[in-house]
Amino acid sequence: MVTCMGDIEALDAVQELSGLWPKDRNESEASIRARLKGKIVDDLPLPSLRTAPGGWRILAPPLIRGDICKCAVSEGQYPFACAMAEMRHRANGWVLTAFEPQCPVCFGTGINNGCLCDFCFGLGWGVQCHDYKKDNAVAVAVEDYLRRGPVGSWRVACEPLTYSGKAKCLLTSTHDSSIPALMELEWKGSDWIVTSLEQQCPDCAGAGLKDISICDRCFGTGWGT
C-alpha cells in the first residue's frame, strides 16, 4: 500500500466538509443530509452528524492508503476534543464514510483498567454502548488457539467481549506484561474463528494518533503495524 501525506484533493475535501458541517445541534437530520448529499455516505449514522457541531480544525495533513483517507481533527469550540474523519475515494471524489470522536473513556487506546474498553469495544474511537455479552465458548476458542500457537507467546488478560457475532479478547505477552495484543474472532456457523491477532502499535501506544497526526504505522487503528 502506498502511504501519502497531505494529498491536496483530500485536504480540500476535509476543509469543504468542515465548512458545510452543522453549526447547530438542533438542525434537522433531513436538512443536514440534503446539504451534505454526495459528500457523505447515505448511511452515515446520525450521531456522527452530531459530532463536532460548528466545524472542525484540522490537526495534521490527511494520511492516505489506497482509496482510504484518515484525518485527525478537533472540534472548533474544544481544541482538545479529537475526532477521526475517514473518507473513501469514489468516482465523484472523496466521500466521508465515518466520523467518530475519540473514546472519552480510554482516550483512543481501546484499553480501560487493563481490559478491553466496553465503551468503544476496543476501537478507541466512537461510542458503541452495545449490550455486550461474555460467552464461555469464546474463551475456550481463545485458549485453544493460544495452545496451538507459538508456545508461551500470549496469555489472556481479561474475559473476551462479544457482540453480534463478533468477539474481542485482550492478551498480554508472556515475556512482558506491558505489551498487549488484540485478538478478534467471528462466529462462523458452529465455531468461533480467530480473524486477527495484532500487537498494540508501539509508535502510538494504541492511541491511533502520534504527535496529533494519524499514526502512519498502524493507520490510526492503534493495533498492528
Q: Spans with pLDDT under 50 lasting ≥5 residues?
A: 1-6
Biggest sheet, open or closed, and with what strands and sense? 6 strands, antiparallel
Strand fraction equals: 25-35%
The proportion of residues forming helix, as a percent range, comes to 10-25%
Count the strands?
Answer: 15
Secondary-structure-based class equals: alpha+beta
The number of helical elements comes to 4
Q: Rg from C-alpha positions? A: 19 Å
Q: What gross morphology would you assign? A: elongated
**What's the order of the H and E elements?**
EHHHEEEEEEEHEEEEEEE
What is the terminal separation in angstroms?
12 Å
Mean pLDDT: 87
Short structural description:
The chain is an alpha+beta fold. The protein is built from four helices and 15 strands.
Please outline the helices and strands:
Elements: E1 3-5, H1 8-20, H2 29-35, H3 46-49, E2 56-58, E3 63-65, E4 68-75, E5 82-90, E6 93-101, E7 111-112, E8 115-116, H4 136-148, E9 154-156, E10 161-163, E11 166-173, E12 180-188, E13 191-199, E14 209-210, E15 213-214
Antiparallel strand pairs: 1-3, 2-4, 3-4, 4-5, 5-6, 7-8, 9-11, 10-11, 11-12, 12-13, 14-15
